[in-house]
């Protein structure tokens, strides 16, 4: 059998969590918040059943045949996503969102940052957060410079 070059693959796993939030920016007046966020600015909040798809990328290990052990990925996702977010009021129960508007974009960044602390360096490829069937945010860790 001839030696093969290393093969790259992407591995994805999904979880679903339920949480509520209120879209509201402290930088805006109540009127501006209502105009910007509409019914999502309801003072009592509203809820979602979020679906999160995490994709890791790496070489397929020639011995195990895996990019990563799915059991390990499941545990990392439990710690990074389910424990801090499931059945929580994002704005009141998650300290990160006390200063950051709990948009789906920012939920994706929060999850990315949590996973980055747990996963082997360089393996995290993408975080997809499905707020609804129609609304999906994809975050790949990109940052932009401050202008």
From TrEMBL:
> Catalytic site residues?
40, 87, 131
- Tell me the GO molecular function terms: 6-pyruvoyltetrahydropterin synthase activity; metal ion binding
The keyword Acyltransferase belongs to this UniProt entry's keyword annotation: no
Its EC top class is lyase
The record's EC number reads: 4.2.3.12
**UniProtKB keywords:** Lyase, Metal-binding, Tetrahydrobiopterin biosynthesis, Zinc
Q: How does the cofactor attach, per the note?
A: Binds 1 zinc ion per subunit.
Gene3D superfamilies this protein is in? 6-pyruvoyl tetrahydropterin synthase/QueD (3.30.479.10)
Q: Which GO terms describe its cellular component?
A: mitochondrion
* Single Gene Ontology BP annotation: tetrahydrobiopterin biosynthetic process
Give coiled-coil spans as residue ranges: none
NCBIfam families with a match to the protein in the record: 6PTHBS
> To which protein family does this belong?
Belongs to the PTPS family.
PANTHER family attached here?
6-PYRUVOYL TETRAHYDROBIOPTERIN SYNTHASE, PYRUVOYL TETRAHYDROBIOPTERIN SYNTHASE
Tell me the function of this protein.
Involved in the biosynthesis of tetrahydrobiopterin, an essential cofactor of aromatic amino acid hydroxylases. Catalyzes the transformation of 7,8-dihydroneopterin triphosphate into 6-pyruvoyl tetrahydropterin.
**Name the record gives this protein:** 6-pyruvoyl tetrahydrobiopterin synthase
Provenance organism: Sylvia borin
């Amino acid at each position: 059998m001839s030696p093969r070059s290393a093969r790259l693959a992407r591995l994805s796993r999904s979880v679903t969590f339920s949480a509520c939030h209120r879209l509201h920016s402290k930088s805006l007046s109540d009127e501006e918040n209502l105009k910007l966020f509409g019914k999502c600015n309801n003072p009592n909040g509203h809820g979602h059943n979020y679906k999160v798809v995490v994709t890791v990328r790496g070489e397929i290990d020639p011995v195990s045949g895996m990019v990563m052990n799915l059991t390990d990925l499941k545990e990392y996702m439990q710690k990074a996503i389910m424990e801090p977010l499931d059945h929580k009021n994002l704005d009141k129960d998650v300290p990160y969102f006390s200063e950051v508007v709990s948009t789906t974009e920012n939920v994706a960044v929060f999850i990315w940052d949590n996973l980055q602390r747990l996963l082997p360096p360089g393996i995290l490829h993408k975080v997809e957060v499905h707020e609804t069937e129609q609304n999906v945010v994809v975050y790949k860790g990109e940052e932009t410079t401050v202008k």
